[in-house]
């Protein structure tokens, strides 16, 4: 009898546990739906379904409002009891359009896009799978709203609303990636992220300083990596995928594998990727100005010009990269959630192609100019406690340690001296965030943050003939940069149709740098900055009906001077050298934007966002002096002395527009258009176009999806930027721009036609093929130092288990 009772209790508990596992299916096909977001409004927690459409919702027991949503499907809001009555099987109806998508990361706290005044775009996993981007920079370009500049294959510098580099912020699993040597020139740090290991990507357009502090002027790019999944049964849950990819334009050979394994309380993800890229081939049809018919080789102890057999090959641009990720999750009970992540990325050396195009006295300026291995490592611990108290309903603590390593290696043509400058940054951060619901209509988010960056910079030179090394100037001073902040954001929702949000942040930042005057006689040996910034935001979202959405937002942002601004020494362009300036203060941005979205008859969706940003006290490069001299000999050439100064006001304004039409039979037509104008005040009071505001650009896609087929024909395009509308500092860069009929630099208009197709051969085995740049155009995206790929054939195989 005792054994029978125990058996009944076991079966009963098993039934209860099983009944708490929800299954989400497509209402038309009854197929399970993966990556459905399930959110409890009471606890602000969220979970997502696995590839079988299942998720354990035991933590939501008793909840009155549970949101069940996935992009492309109609939102359902049910109570736990209603889900229980349906036997824990929920069917979602496909929805052509949704103005209220769920996001989980870009604002640090989970919120609906329908409640956020800023414009937010999500790059869906399905679109990433079809587009199959090579790098994380290319992944951002999939959105059609982020412009990507490249000076080398190992690169990718996003431009958003006329801002770039250290005026944009990157986050990885909620951790700030920007460090104290993020520069004003184009950067390539985003390629350290693995697109295969990225589960979700979101871009918030406009200021994000209230949440993220310094640098979030033009936008925030938030990457969520693959998350561990728990098992709903007593058995271990194992799933994963493998990908291989080949592309013809650079003989790419890529291999990726990841595996997820989980139990009731423990879960893990392991991911590894490796890329091998040869020199990149550009297209046949376009400006001859982009052709470089030679490269430099060291032959018998002498630099020689070697004619290329194929002038379309951009030599040197080859490089390799490897990434590894390990994430772990432990959930001992309903209240606590512990997550740990380890990330590592390392590239080989890769050539700075635009620098190698420079000419001096009729000969190549450089025999070598390359970046040394770029390394990034991050340890991240995130602890979440969900329990209703007087001060919070949810508490999150995030601790992170990152290490960045990069170097620059160059040697003048016919010189035996190779210069090597290496940088290492140790970055530490700590965040504590709280969420508290104040009744039915109000929610307050608040928190505190501490950041510390230690910068170590070294310089040396090598005599390549005899192998001797000697000290040389470093790029940066030995420095510490730190930031401390408190912030709060308040959401008031008087009705389902109207939301108000406001936030404020106080940020204090410090910089201590010590300069080495061995090589340059600076009139200072130290720099100390001790200052603060106050930023805020206020916005509203109004839904006049289910098919309308109107939002307006005013926000301020700031960028604190970092080590790159204050202390760097480098040659910005031929005949100019930038020296340190220890007297910088923060720059401030003031941004207004308004957006409207409308769905017509569940067939057509249009959206428009207009914005205007003023950047005051902007840090820009200006002519300067060193010990009373306006020029010095630098790297064997007399160069104008310049420094970064708070010396300008910049304005950026523009329009983002989108259109999407859904036709019967799985046909979809969409288009995104981005128009931006940037202006920057010069020394003499005149105005120059902004360097980081690209010409009008966009994407138009025609998509067909049916069953196991997903086919897309699309065009990418950019308008011309004539010489008169180029930034003054860009007009002299003949090594990267084409020449017009008057011999002046300009950026020609271009377009590409492209084809992508994915087909599920078997249940777990898929094929992805594509042809990019079908007409083999030779083109160079604005401000890029190398041409984009010519006609490019892509083959990718993927296996899921």
Automatic annotation (TrEMBL):
Keywords, ordered alphabetically: Cell outer membrane, Membrane, Receptor, Signal, TonB box, Transmembrane, Transmembrane beta strand, Transport
One GO cellular component term, please give it. Answer: cell outer membrane
Signal peptide range: 1-19
Q: Which residues form the TonB-dependent receptor-like beta-barrel domain?
A: 275-774
**One of the record's GO molecular function terms:** siderophore uptake transmembrane transporter activity
One of the GO biological process terms: siderophore transmembrane transport
Give yes or no: UniProt keyword Transmembrane. yes
List each copy of the TonB-dependent receptor plug domain by range.
115-220
Give the bilayer topology: Multi-pass membrane protein
Which Pfam family, any one of them, does this sequence belong to? TonB_dep_Rec_b-barrel
User: Where is this protein found?
Assistant: Cell outer membrane
Tell me the domain of life.
Bacteria
Q: PANTHER family, per this entry?
A: HEMOGLOBIN AND HEMOGLOBIN-HAPTOGLOBIN-BINDING PROTEIN 1-RELATED, TONB-DEPENDENT OUTER MEMBRANE RECEPTOR
Return the similarity comment. Answer: Belongs to the TonB-dependent receptor family.
What protein am I looking at?
Hemoglobin/transferrin/lactoferrin receptor protein
Organism source for this protein? Marivirga sericea
Q: What is the lineage of its organism?
A: Bacteria, Pseudomonadati, Bacteroidota, Cytophagia, Cytophagales
